[in-house]
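tool_log.txt
---
The assistant was asked to compare two proteins side by side. It first ran the structure predictor on the initial sequence, then on the second. Raw inputs and outputs are pasted verbatim so the downstream comparison step can read them without reformatting.
(1)
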Amino acid sequence: MQESICPRCGTKSHRLHQNHRFVVKDLSWGEQLVFLEINRRQFKCESCKKPFSEELDFVSRRRTYTKRLANKIIKEVLDSDIHSLAKKGVVTTEEIERMLKDASKELDNSKPSSLKRLGIDEIALVKGKGNYCAVLVDLDTSKLLAILGGRTQEIIKETLIGWGAKVLDQIEEVSIDLWQGYKNLVTELIPNAQVVADRFHVMTQINQELDTQRKKEKRNIEESIKKAKSVSKKAEYEQILEGLNKSKYPLLKNEDSLNEEQMHKLDSSERCITSSKSNA
């Protein structure tokens, strides 16, 4: 159908002005990035006489990625963080920030119904700038309930109070990060709910502790090499050190995400840590 509606004056136009190539990012095919090349038509308004490009129902205005890709990224960022997702190379940090802002505008701000498990989390909008926003999620449906303008207790409290006592009283569980301020807020406003630690933040803390121990073991072995009095003992320590070198990724990532070489490195690292402790 050769017609489109002018976004300026709302007039339906049939005057095709020109065609132009438009490329947008779409859902990946496995690990392969997918781009859609679209013939996007440009019309000339019969009323205001100005050219305009036709609107596409699967791409938001002035965006270079599909709506379904944006929806997928928003769900993933709630289980991870912006910069970890950006490192995958599918979308940039700036694009993820735009996706979140667009999603925030589209939320109807209505009170959630049948909410039993609430997730309160925060997302860093700009790396290293201390610019965070809080997000509220229905954990049972993975539905995004609200993206707030900040992460302070006052901002979150205002939103929760706005939901009303009827909504808050039916919440049975609230998942938060390890900040005491969030726990105090939940205890005050949702006293019937059980407070649980968010899985992502727990794993982050565990990984930090594990990496700290890994570095400590390396330093101990390096010091033992310097103090070794025999060639055989020095060689033994050097073998342990070799097993610990470049072991951070295999130790901290999920086992099912490792390839064969990384699995071998993981086994070697675990043996070396055990051997290091027995030599201590």
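(2)
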Amino acid sequence: MKTNVLISIKPKYVDEILNEKKKFEYRKSIFKREIDKIYIYSTSPEQKIVGYFVYTGYYKETPEIIWQNTKKYSGIDEESYYKYFYKRPYAYAIKIEQINAFRKPIDPQKAFQNFLPPQSYIYLEGDLIE
């Protein structure tokens, strides 16, 4: 069975991803398992799973090098970026490719028993059906 993840992203960044202006998702830590898809949970006020992208890898480097190499498609301002990675030796930039937006976003309260939005990410076994 394929392993996927569900990640929480603020709605303003979700819009940038769906509009293909944001091609990197920044994280302080990365997945420990082999991943197939990354499902996008748009946080409050939307609180829905809006789509997914195919996982094709990530970059790991110092925050300065990651910023220099990804800022054009970061979807975030430089000040917010450096605030997020403050005092972190490494930054992770997940490549966003092959975006698939759901025609009808999924209500996670109906899809999962006792759903709690992931702080960063949670593993999912199998696919969510659109």
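---
observation on (2): The chain has four helices and six strands. Strands lie at 3-9, 24-27, 37-42, 48-61, 91-106, 121-125.
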